[in-house]
Write a structure and sequence with these properties.
The structure holds two protein chains of two kinds. By secondary structure, chain A is of the alpha+beta class. Chain A contains five helices and five strands. Among the domains of chain B are: 1-30 and 432-456 and 609-768, 2-Layer Sandwich (Aldehyde Oxidoreductase, domain 4), CATH 3.30.365; 465-606, 2-Layer Sandwich (Aldehyde Oxidoreductase, domain 4). Classes of the chains: A alpha+beta, B alpha+beta.
Chain lengths: 168, 768
């Protein structure tokens, strides 16, 4: 079977890989690129463990064929931190004990990041609906929701401070 | 990067009576947390080896059929295929062998016993090739009638699935095989007299369907069998020593030939206390001479791995007008899938365990069906038994005009009460949990239209078992704590906290590790809420011996007798004060001169478990147009003994509550008439999502277990017991209808609202 050559951006780096035409993006990330942060919990788009952000849009990578990533910008959990600085969501999840087994965590972080990108000041209900495509079986979501709200708060505080500094 | 300790707001503060600890009871960021928020953490399916093959299982489309033939010839000739195995490749097992059930469950022999039962397995270069080859394995079946319901299994006219299965525990011993694998009877006092003494007697029937543990990580394994007859297995499980023992037994190998390396485990809840793929992967690897990786699909997880049993009960309780329970009678049946289990025994044990009832009779049957072999699910059997008891207690309280918490306070077991098995309870915190809920602002808060409030309690006995821990002090005074307990909910952080408390060094100077089967002493499964209790005891024991060693070395360094050296706040302190304290790091730096490396292993079989109680309070809002039930407020109080890391205790309470809510409202296995599962995916088997739930206020009650160095009881399981009844009682309060068949799906709730409900069909009598 001939392989498909795909060029895209993964976590900010221009990336090339070969894949089968019928291979999912999730499998290409995991098996061709060694990025195993995204998980396969169901393979049918029901659990959200494979969530990544493609061109700014939250996506189940198990429902996307790898060749469809041609030319796209893909963000996975491995690209969420900036060097040594954790993303505010990562920090708040750690401090808020928002993970137990941790297998859903990469997907939930990506869903939460996508939510905060479009809604920096979500209500609890908006967070709950924003994460409704991501199953967690350990936490009952309580600490996850609190941690997303805390991260939103800290992001807003930081950006306000930045704005103030810029104005000054 | 820096990680900081934080103390999120919590409704629970340690009681004043508890000793103040420096580390125990604090909330450090867990040691394994960073890897889990950055994608570094390696779960079972994240393990890859050079040259590995992909394995795939051939599964039965029939719930019950005789296997006439298996033809693997075509599959073996397909591109990329390196090995094919079926039942004949495993050691023969005979009915009655201890390994029979597991062996037949792993790979069918002469019959398939449920839809999804493994029949053969294939290893090929790629997953696609393995799947294609699996589809090319030709199996000829002769379908047999499946037994699919508890009623059918109890019907003597329905043929026995296993010709060798005679009901154990029955007196006289039966002469005919049946689908009742086991019978448990408990009785105390004179039940008829007890009911006669009651002012109100209520008897009700309940049914629940099998539900899945629903861990998000499917079962996965990578096995590498080498030419010397050994194999290394990477997988996630709740107990890798157990995986090793079971895999060895299934293959007929000596234990020492298998090494199991624990991966991070993506949820288990009891479902990963047994094995499904490991021996298949080892055998395929041995046959192919290459590593083999196998990963289940979600459909395979539902169809072939451990649901919790379904149940059908009739429970009767009597009470005096002052609320005192006088007698109880329970007739119970649990369906454990195709093989026997301890489900009925556990149900019989737990059904009346929370209350001091003078006279009772319990009769519980375990039945087998042509459905997947059930596995443990968090406090196995107790959520169903609590659904029955806690609903009837609620109805009694209602009938007598007694507040439901008060009703339970009047009957709650306390220290010295004799339990169902005939042993006295040690100090327990049931009353404290009831009081915590009674005194919580939630209990008296106003309710809106179509809302109702329910309360329910739950009890779990918890277990001890064997654990090992090795503490290694590093040259610079940091430490590694290696245990054999897979960390399913933050136990590494708990181990580090207890070690920090003992050694007197910072919790971040301790690296807690889960060792493989060749790197740490034998440790039983992470189950029975035992890890922080029992493995924690092993850690404490090892640390105390380390401290004894450190005192001896400090005495040498000071030139004094060891009896003059104490250990305080991480330093050896000379009692007389003539020598400066020697911090731990100063002693480890000189270890070579004082006797060599400082490393100690603690191993024990933990005794003195602390039974656990929980009380949950639930508000629901029921849409009268659609029957949809939304949980709008939830508070759960649980006696943790001592919360080593309160955040993860809260997490256990919240997670168990959420699973119980799913069980109450949505989750169930649905079979067609042929025994084919109709909802083997998360779209149709609907577990709670974030928008289904409110915040879950976890109230940690701390009544320390006197038999644990820090008072731990264990917290993993009890939280799933009360929600079924708490939700059911809340739905009854909201609608005036009692629904006793789970799940309380919209259709069922709407039916109860529109029609008269089931109350009229049950017996309720008043002796007064």
């Amino acid at each position: 079977m001939s392989r498909v050559h795909v060029t895209c951006t993964v976590n900010g780096d221009e990336t090339e890989f070969l894949c089968d035409g019928g291979q999912t993006l999730l499998n290409a990330l995991r098996d061709e690129l060694g990025l195993t942060g995204a998980k396969e919990g169901c393979g049918t788009g029901d659990c959200g463990s494979c969530s990544v952000i493609i061109d700014g849009r939250l996506t189940c990578s198990c429902l996307v064929l790898a060749p469809e990533a041609q030319g796209a910008a893909v963000l996975t959990v491995e690209g969420l931190a900036s060097g040594d600085d954790l993303h505010p969501l990562q920090q708040s999840f750690l401090e808020g004990a928002a993970l137990q087994c941790g297998v859903c965590t990469p997907g939930i972080l990506m869903a939460a990041a996508a939510l905060l990108d479009r809604n920096p000041d979500p209500t609890e209900t908006e967070v709950r609906y924003g994460l409704a495509g991501n199953l967690c079986r350990c936490t009952g979501y309580d600490k996850i929701v609190r941690s997303v709200l805390a991260a939103a708060d800290s992001q807003r505080t930081t950006s306000q401070r930045t704005n103030t500094e810029e104005t000054a | 990067m820096t990680v900081t300790e934080s103390r999120p707001e919590s409704s629970s503060e340690p009681p004043a009576a508890r000793p103040r600890y420096r580390f125990v009871g604090t909330r450090p960021v867990r040691h394994d947390g960073l890897d889990k928020v950055t994608g570094r953490a390696r779960f079972a399916a994240d393990c890859d080896l050079p040259g590995q093959l992909a394995g795939c299982v051939v599964r039965s489309p029939h719930a019950h059929a005789r296997i006439i033939s298996i033809d693997t010839g075509e599959a073996e000739a397909m591109p990329g295929v390196k090995a094919v195995i079926s039942g004949g490749d495993f050691p023969a097992v005979a009915p009655g062998d201890p390994n029979y059930d597991m062996g037949v469950n792993l790979m069918a022999r002469d019959r398939v016993l449920y839809e999804g039962h493994a029949v053969a397995a294939v290893a090929a270069l790629t997953t696609d090739q393995a799947r294609a080859a699996a589809a090319a394995v030709r199996v000829e079946y002769e379908p047999l009638p499946p037994v699919l319901t508890i009623d059918a299994a109890l019907d003597p006219a329905v043929g026995a699935i296993h010709a060798h299965m005679f009901t154990s525990g029955a007196d006289p011993a039966p002469t005919e095989p049946s689908n009742v694998s086991q019978l448990t009877n408990f009785a105390r006092g004179d039940t008829e007299a007890g009911f006669a003494a009651a002012d109100v007697v209520i008897e009700r029937e309940f049914t629940t369907q099998p539900v899945h543990q629903g861990y998000i990580e499917p079962h996965a394994v990578t096995a590498d069998a080498s030419q010397d007859g050994k194999a290394t297995v990477w997988c996630s499980s709740q107990g890798h020593f157990n995986v090793r023992a079971q895999t060895a037994a299934m293959l007929g190998w000596e234990t020492a030939r298998i090494k199991v390396v624990p991966a991070e485990i993506g949820g288990g809840f009891g479902g990963k206390t047994t094995i499904y793929l490991e021996p298949l992967a080892v055998l395929l690897s041995a046959k192919a001479g290459r590593p083999v990786k196998m990963v289940m699909t979600r459909s395979e997880v539902f169809r072939a791995t451990g649901p919790a049993p379904g149940s059908k009960f009739r429970v009767k309780l009597g009470a005096r007008s002052d609320g005192t329970l006088t007698a109880g009678k329970a007739q119970m049946a649990y369906s454990s899938g195709v093989f026997p289990s301890y489900a009925a025994f556990l149900g019989a044990w737990t059904v009346f365990e929370s209350y001091d009832i003078a006279d009772f009779e319990v009769e519980a049957r375990n039945v087998v069906l042509n459905t997947p072999r059930s596995a443990a699910y968090r406090a196995p059997s107790a959520p169903m038994s609590a659904l029955a008891t806690e609903t009837v207690v609620d109805e009694l309280a209602q009938a007598l005009g007694i507040d439901p918490i008060e009703m339970r306070l009047r009957n709650a077991v306390s220290e010295g009460a004799i339990n169902t098995l005939g042993a006295p309870f040690p100090r327990v915190g049931f009353t404290e949990c009831l009081e915590a809920i009674r005194d919580h602002p939630h209990y008296g808060a106003p309710l809106g239209p179509n809302q109702g409030r329910g309360v329910a309690a739950g009890h779990w006995f918890n277990i001890g078992e064997s654990s090992s821990a090795t503490v290694n002090l590093n040259e610079d005074g940091t430490a590694t704590v290696v245990t054999g307990s897979p960390d399913i909910g933050g136990s590494r952080a708990s181990m580090a906290l207890m070690a920090a408390e003992e050694l007197g060094i910072d919790v971040y100077d301790i690296t807690p590790v889960v060792g493989d089967t060749e790197s740490v002493g034998f440790t039983d499964i992470t189950e029975g809420s035992r890890a922080t209790f029992a493995t924690g005891m092993a850690v404490v024991e090892a640390c105390r011996r380390v401290v004894a060693d450190l005192r001896g070395r400090a005495a040498k360094m000071m030139g004094v007798d060891v009896s003059e050296v104490d250990w305080a706040d991480g330093s050896a302190v000379h009692a007389g004060g003539e020598h400066d304290p020697l911090p731990l790091a100063a002693i480890t730096a000189e270890a070579k001169k004082t006797g060599g490396p400082i490393t100690v292993t603690g191993s024990l079989d933990a005794k003195g478990v602390g039974p656990s109680f929980a009380v949950h309070l639930c508000d629901v809002e029921v849409d009268p147009e659609t029957g949809v039930v939304q949980v709008v407020r939830y508070t759960a109080a649980q006696d943790a003994g001592t919360a080593i890391h309160p955040s993860y205790v809260e997490g256990q309470i919240q997670g168990g509550a959420a699973q119980g809510i799913g069980w109450a409202l949505n989750e169930e296995y649905i079979y067609d008439g042929d025994g084919v599962m109709e909802n083997p995916g998360f779209l149709d088997y609907r577990v709670p999502v974030a928008s289904d739930l409110p915040m879950i206020d976890a109230v940690i009650v701390e009544v320390p277990n006197p038999n644990h160095p820090y008072g731990v009881r264990g917290v993993g399981e009890t939280s799933i017991i009360p929600p079924l009844a708490a939700v059911a009682n809340a739905v009854a309060a909201a609608t005036g209808r009692r629904i006793r068949d789970l799940p309380m799906s919209p259709v069922r709730v709407l039916d109860a609202i529109v029609n008269s409900g089931s109350d009229s069909t049950d017996s309720s009598s008043s002796n007064g």
